[in-house]
């Protein structure tokens, strides 16, 4: 077992805080520092390290623990290095300080999404190696760039390259949500992200006049339709305790653009939305609904997709499924090893 670090902090927590301090924040992530950090982890753990530049300045880092039977397909543990932009003035602590309070809470951009998972992968491999384990299958850990901007300059390009094919990945684990209890939350499907930009064109003119058919008026109609849909989905979620967030479609207005001056009515305005479409939604009908809202707003209103997932995949959680049987079986074994005790702490369990 690893020794405690300064002030009793576990070395994995120290590594986590070091990783958080690397400013891999969009739109200008410091990927160089992140890769140097990962290369050092590979050296300390005795792992292979491969760097694959998929686009200028965009490198996928692969750490590899070879298995004893290279003929078998490998296990892939994936995480992304980049984090979303931050509004520093709304934080109680510097988002890149990795401040830890007296209760052990760590404040930092990327703590859950998803640098904690990266460190968990590394710590799991470290412990297994220290305990002398060897496995038939090779284990790869991939650290990818640009996930927060759609993965177009990261995993999307990597999977098309021979270096990815050479990994021979048979099963992969990726992003989830951190849980403060002993429960393992298992996500067996995911809502599809649709990033939509609605552009409205209309008559321009001077700001002192009541100009008809403006871009803003028509854009307002579309925004109102989409936000009404948002409220409907929110109410559906809140009124039914059986529903989870992943079973309804969420949407947020994330950007509004247009205009050149206070006293000039613009000819063009746009609004951007982040949809997360529920797995049971008819995607063709949903896109037709979006188009219908644009058409109802008037002429010159169009939409385009910055990201559009259409390939829904739902992993089986039936006991006959090999993956689910293996995963749930281990969790049940963990539960059976727990000693009976009182108190509020959860026993290991599965949330499906």
Automatic annotation (TrEMBL):
Keywords for the protein's UniProt record, in alphabetical order: Cytoplasm, Hydrolase, Metal-binding, Zinc
The enzyme's E.C. designation: 3.5.1.14
Coiled-coil region(s): none
Matches recorded under CDD domains: M20_AcylaseI_like
Listed PROSITE patterns: ARGE_DAPE_CPG2_1, ARGE_DAPE_CPG2_2
Similarity annotation: Belongs to the peptidase M20A family.
Gene transcribed to yield this protein: ACY1
Name listed for the protein in its UniProt record: N-acyl-aliphatic-L-amino acid amidohydrolase
Required cofactor names: Zn(2+)
Pfam families: M20_dimer, Peptidase_M20
Localisation: Cytoplasm
């Amino acid at each position: 077992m690893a020794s405690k670090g300064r002030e009793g902090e576990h070395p994995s927590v120290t590594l986590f805080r070091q990783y958080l301090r690397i400013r891999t924040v969009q739109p200008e992530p410091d990927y160089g520092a992140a890769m140097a950090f990962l290369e050092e982890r590979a050296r300390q753990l005795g792992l292979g390290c491969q760097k694959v530049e998929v686009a200028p300045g965009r490198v996928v880092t692969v750490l590899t623990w070879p298995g004893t039977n290279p003929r078998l397909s490998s296990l892939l543990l994936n995480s992304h290095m980049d984090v979303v932009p931050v509004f520093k003035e709304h934080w109680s602590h510097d988002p890149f300080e990795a401040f830890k309070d007296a209760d052990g809470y760590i404040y930092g951009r990327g703590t859950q999404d998803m640098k904690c998972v990266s460190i968990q992968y590394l710590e799991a491999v470290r412990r297994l190696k220290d305990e002398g384990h060897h496995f038939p299958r090779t284990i790869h850990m991939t650290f990818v760039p640009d996930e927060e901007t759609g993965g177009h300059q990261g995993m999307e390009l990597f999977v098309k390259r021979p270096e990815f094919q050479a990994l021979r990945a048979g099963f992969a684990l990726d992003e989830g949500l951190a849980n403060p209890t002993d429960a393992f939350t298992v996500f067996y499907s995911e809502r599809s992200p649709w990033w939509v930009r609605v552009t409205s064109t209309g008559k321009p003119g001077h700001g002192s006049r009541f100009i008809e058919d403006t871009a803003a008026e028509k854009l307002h109609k579309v925004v109102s339709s989409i936000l009404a849909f948002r409220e409907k989905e929110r109410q559906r979620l809140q009124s039914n305790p059986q529903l989870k967030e992943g079973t309804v479609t969420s949407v947020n207005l994330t950007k509004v653009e247009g205009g050149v001056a206070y006293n000039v009515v613009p000819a063009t305005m746009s609004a951007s939305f982040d949809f997360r479409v529920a797995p049971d939604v008819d995607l063709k009908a949903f896109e037709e609904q979006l188009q219908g809202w644009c058409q109802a707003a008037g002429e010159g209103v169009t939409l385009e997709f910055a990201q559009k997932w259409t390939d829904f995949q739902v992993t089986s959680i039936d006991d006959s499924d090999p993956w689910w049987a293996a995963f749930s079986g281990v969790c049940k074994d963990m539960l059976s090893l727990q000693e009976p005790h009182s108190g509020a702490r959860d026993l290991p369990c599965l949330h499906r």
